[in-house]
Specification:
By secondary structure, the protein is mostly helical. It has 4 helices and 2 strands; from the N terminus they run H-H-H-H-E-E. Strands 1-2 form a two-stranded antiparallel sheet. A hairpin with a 5-residue loop joins strand 1 and strand 2. Helix 2 crosses helix 3. The protein is globular and about 30 Å long.
Amino acid sequence: MRRVVKLVYSGDMNADAITGQNVRDIMRARRISQEALGQVLATTQKAVSRKLAGERSWMLDELLAVAAFLEVPITALLPDADYEPVPAGRGRVGETTDQKVRGSSPFGRTLC
């Protein structure tokens, strides 16, 4: 079984960015290209790049496929247990859990 090293991340990274960094680190160690991962996910290199940068969310099916392709447990791709999630999955890189989401919901209610 291959060894996977988890890094410590700054508090301004959301779960998608951390997952992307974990995938990227494993890919680099094994010299796997974004194009190869794109073939596994049936998407383009550009879409893979956006996922690795945390600009696009990961779907569970994608994470399962990536874990199988990289021959690692899915937990190797996810944030560590000490990660503090952003409420309602609304966070993006640079936002903290103290920041509130402002705007209107599709149900006609104002958020916050």
